[in-house]
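User: Design a sequence. Structure:
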């Protein structure tokens, strides 16, 4: 027996309070508590604005821990990957497994094949030109003959018209 589930059902998360999951609710409450505590502790010494700025670096990671999810990675997993790829990632280096002689031989073989193909194309083009040129020349000669005959007829007609109506 097969039971098909829609994709939406696979990503279904049960809400605890106000549409938040338990994880989201826990980290939201924790972030609010930490932020409120830092602001209340520092408010009298440095003022409300600076105490909020001091609290922000502590509150944001806590809130992101509950809410952030990128391609199945939590906030801390994603941050760890970013730090790893930014600072500890080794560059990829290609090392050829073939010797220089093998590479030269492969290059020469491909070059010879290309030269053969070019020579075959040239031969085919010459054959086409030889056969095609004769036909093209014949067509041009016929057209020129027709144009010459038409011009002679028109010239004769113009001369006759000039003599008769002048």
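Assistant: Done.
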């Amino acid at each position: 027996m097969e039971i098909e589930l829609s994709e939406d059902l696979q990503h279904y998360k049960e809400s605890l309070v106000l549409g938040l999951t338990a994880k989201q609710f826990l980290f939201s409450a924790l972030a609010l508590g930490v932020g409120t505590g830092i602001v209340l502790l520092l408010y009298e010494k440095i003022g409300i604005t600076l105490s909020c700025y001091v609290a922000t670096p502590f509150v944001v990671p806590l809130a992101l821990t509950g809410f952030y999810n990128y391609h199945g990675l939590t906030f801390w997993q994603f941050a760890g990957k970013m730090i790893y790829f930014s600072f500890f990632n080794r560059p990829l280096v290609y090392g050829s497994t073939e010797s220089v002689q093998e590479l030269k031989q492969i290059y020469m073989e491909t070059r010879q094949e290309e030269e053969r193909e070019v020579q075959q194309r040239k031969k085919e083009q010459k054959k086409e030109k030889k056969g095609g040129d004769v036909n093209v020349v014949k067509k041009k000669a016929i057209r020129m003959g027709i144009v010459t005959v038409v011009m002679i007829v028109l010239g004769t007609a113009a001369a006759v018209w000039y003599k008769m109506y002048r």
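The first strand starts at residue 69 and ends at 70. Strands lie at 69-70, 73-74.
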